[in-house]
Predict the 3D structure of the following.
Amino acid sequence: MESHRRTKVALAAGLASGLLLAAAAPAGLTGWLAWVALAPAGAVALAWRGTRAGQLAVPLAYGVYLEALLIRALPFGIADGQWGDPPPVMIGDSPVLFVALLAVPAFAALLYAIRFGEPWGLERLAPGLRPAAAVAIPAAAFGALDFVRVNIDPGGFWGPLFLSQHETGALALSALGGPWLVSFAIGASGYAVAQLALALAARTRPGTTTGAPARGAVAVSLGTAALVAAGVTAGLSVDRGGGRWAVVAAVQPGYDTAEEDRWQTRHFEPGSYGAAAADLIRDLSPLTREAAAAGAEIVVWPEAAVWVDPAAGKAGSELRRLASESGAAIVVPYFLRERRQGQTTVVLPDGSFTATQAKQRPMWFLGENGDNRAAPEPVSVGGIRTGTMLGVDNQGPRVARALAGERAELLVSATHDWEQLAGPQRAFAAVNAAATGTPLVRADWRYGSAIYGPEGERIAGAGGDLERTVLVASVTLGEGTTPYTVVGELFGWLLLALTCAAGVTGMAGSFRWTSEPSVAPR
């Protein structure tokens, strides 16, 4: 009977934590919920570590979290008419059934099998270290999980804890150690609250003496809060360099190139991409001129705006004329169907084109080819070192940090997203700007175009609805001088190493685990 009661408590705690995490995600209620979201599941994992109930709560929470995000993010029909060969898991032009019924449950089962969320190897530490380790080990595991997922995921991405802070001051932590530091801090906060709650609950039990454990839990909780506050303060005080200003713009056409009933897309067929480029240039010219009239020096078009070499033929002539007449440099992402490669160039007001910058994370599962990739390198646009990212290049800090490390002063993210992916993409853009201390211009075909300052603050935004618009704003140019830009992924690797060491230690002692409940960390 007692084991059944514990299982019910674990189920309830896991469900509560999962829903709180979902409510803290982009497009949720508020990112501040993330700081307490893991407390219910974490309390179960700490109180009953080594038992089935303690093993269940956190993996269940993560599974519920992903399901809540992905089911609404992958509606049927999202791939209808889109370019590329969809994988065989698509049903009704969406992978939602595969993801919801197989992928997420399998991932949650893997987390359950490795006892993810438990403070592995805690019993092997000295008693005085256990309160801190009970917080640090699970927090490191959450940071390491985000680090691994972001770096190996090939396509649309949801669920890293750090995205929840894209509109809060806590995002400043990313400037110190990257977004993984934000995830670590969120995990530490949740477990610190859980440990404090367990210690306070133990004090109310008749005949229980918990002075030392309670004092340790209180000290760890206060220390965690102080460290997070100090980290945020340090992140906010980072000198991001710069001092120069630039006026930039993002063009959002307000339609999809798969919409065959539009005159702008009537020629998007093999053999007629030149005519399609002429139509698109003619359609985007008024928006580009509007941006230039508002003072924009650099105007960014969305991903794969033309499907021919923009520097050649009639397309090149039209782009040179538009840049010359408007007086603005135009960032032109393009796609070559025969090569299945995406890249970007910039046409300058003097009629010249910059060197191309290739897409760094090609979606190979949709047929994109990355053979044209080279190390990310900014180009000079009117004296402004500009680095471009295409599509899912923005989903993770790797490309943005590489460009900032090469002294990019401005980042550009050109995308072609569906509505439900726009929220995470906007959040990633804010994180990348804050982590590297570099302003970022995000231009999408239909949803969520925005301009971010070097602290990740949104200066201008198109919102999440379908809209034809142009955004113009002044930004302080960055110099890529944040600690994260300098040290790179060091903190992520440290979290991964700590997690692996703790996991191996915990697995080595697994023969000691029993079905009896453990006491609160002491």
User: Anything to note?
Assistant: The mean pLDDT is 91. The chain has 15 helices and twelve strands. Residues 211-236 form the longest helix (26 residues).
